Amino acid sequence: MNAPLPTPEHSSPGCPVHAGDGSPHEPLYGPAFAADPAAVYRRLRTAGPTAPVELAPGVRATLVTGYDAALHVLRTTETFSKDSRRWRDLADGTVPPDSPVVPMMAYRPNALLTDGREHRRLREAITDSLGRVEPSALRGHVEQTADTLIDRFAAHGSADLLAAYAQPLPLLVFNRLFGCPPDIGDRLVEGMSGIFDGVDAEKANELLTRTVTELVGLKRGRPAQDVTSWLIAHPAGLSDEELVHTLVLLMGAGTEPQQNLIANSLRLLLSDERFAGSLSGGSLPVDDSLDEVLWTDPPMANYAVHFPVHDVRYEGALLREGEPLVISFAAANTDPALTAERRAGNRAHLAWSAGPHACPAQGPARLIASVAVEKLLDRLPDVELAVAAGELSWRPGPFHRALAALPVRFPPAASVLGGTPERQPDGQPRQTAARPRPVPPWAHQPAAAGPGRARRLWSGLRSWWRGGE
What tens digit of pLDDT does each residue of 239-295 get? Predict the structure, then answer.
């Protein structure tokens, strides 16, 4: 367990930065880290509950790997600020503005990156607006979207569930919730994917900001029953700049992490004997799998960046004022110091963060993932991985835990588009009950990482949604 609360300790500004044990900065980028982050976390724990890391070439930070240490940072807002204008290395030019991690860390006027009164005002606008989304309506839309997507590949007997299902489903759901037209959605997906993957991140950030600004302008002129319009009309009185960056925050949190939660849960259900046995017995342990993933493979593995407001020494490690302190939700959740069972029903994990900046959309996020997984397993009960679980590859990146592809196979199934399929006397659906619409070209494309894949996928979805092939 950790020592008592840390006490401030001011040191000479010219003192060089070293880990408490002189350890080098461990890189959290590249294929080696993506392939086995747990091994990296085990090495880092030897330095204590915090350890020096490199988020991208030349971008140094301290990673919090201990569960108690993570809770302390997340809850002690008077010592650890979310305002990244305090980031010294960015302010003095040590970190260049085109570094791939800057769009994920640099200051934006939204609830994630503000403290105190401003944080409360911006967060209230978010919670109130999201609170107007009816859970039953959200469930119905997720089910309809899931059926539509499954119909596109059900008759083929194989699919990449990431590219054909886990990725487009939250995109379609959230574009509906935010009242986003397809032409704007195309650019939003490209910008968001570029930021998360760190591919030309500065350009992706500019595209994303410009596109969301266009959406705000559209909704100011033509408000509707959607989250964007509700944010605009909220009594908190968000400025256009605050609206843009609040929407960037919500869309980022609702797309990339959501697809990872869906895909990672499906991977677990299809590869882990504990869950596979339940599936074959007729029980769908979806909630159990979600809990397990949120503990061991959270979709945002390392984030919740904080900045000490003054030098702090914590269990022998010096945490310098203005240097990034990144919470490793994945490492903290798997801290060996935790003795409680981390599976069914235990939701003390940190996947949603904690403290005043805990995710305000946990309920909707879990509902979307749960319905998506349940629907897929209900429609394709005999689905199985097309490769060994150990052969699945993960996308590099310091922040997310994201599969590059999820190839599966299954007995070809009927489409249910347009209504419930006819039933045979034994209650089973007739395989010729419905004639599927043509499968669009994006349904079986290889899932190469990067914004190009997202742009092609969304363009295909948009074309198909409008009636084309």
Answer: 999 999 999 899 888 888 999 999 999 999 999 877 765 554 444 478 888 999 999
Instruction: Return the C-alpha torsion angle 75, 367, 138, 407, nearest 10.
Output: 120
**Average per-residue pLDDT for the chain:** 82
What is the pLDDT confidence band of residue 345, given thresholds at 50, 70 and 90? low
pLDDT higher than 50, residue 390: yes
pLDDT tens per residue, range 154-188:
999 999 999 999 998 998 898 889 998 878 877 87
